[in-house]
Amino acid sequence: MHPNITVGDYSYYDDEDDIHNFEKNVLYHYEFLGDKLIIGKFCQIACGAKFLMNGMFHIPNAFSTYPFMIFSDEFKTKYPTGAKPPFKGDIVIGNDVWIGSDATFMPGV
User: Fold this and answer.
1) What is the number of helices (H) and of strands (E) in the chain?
2) Distance of alpha carbon 38 from alpha carbon 6, whole angstroms
3) How many domains does the structure of the chain reveal?
4) pLDDT value at residue 55
5) Residues taking part in catalysis
6) CATH code of the domain containing 69
7) For residues 96 and 43, what is the distance between their CA atoms, to the nearest angstrom?
8) Which pLDDT score is estimated for 86?
9) 91 in Cβ contact with 51 (< 8 Å)
10) How far apart are CA 101 and CA 93, in angstroms?
11) Closest C-alpha to 32, from 3, 74, 62
């Protein structure tokens, strides 16, 4: 499992295709951003639930909104000082939460 994903005891994911492939639902989760998905204990997550992480954002105050930094370290030095994508925070799901089919969670929730 991704090092920035924490799942509490007895929480489970239900998917008729593959219950062991939960991470396919955690999108735009780039390790270098450091954001976390934290799921509490006794949670039930239905298939199709999506967790959109901070990597989905683009840099609005740079020369381009194209995410060059994801594809090459070479571009990191070419961005203006302070140019970085918005960071809305981690996604934190409490204990004993039932997440229905096709629910979507955004960063900072």
Assistant:
1) 1, 9
2) 5
3) 1
4) 85
5) 58
6) 2.160.10.10
7) 5
8) 79
9) yes
10) 16
11) 3
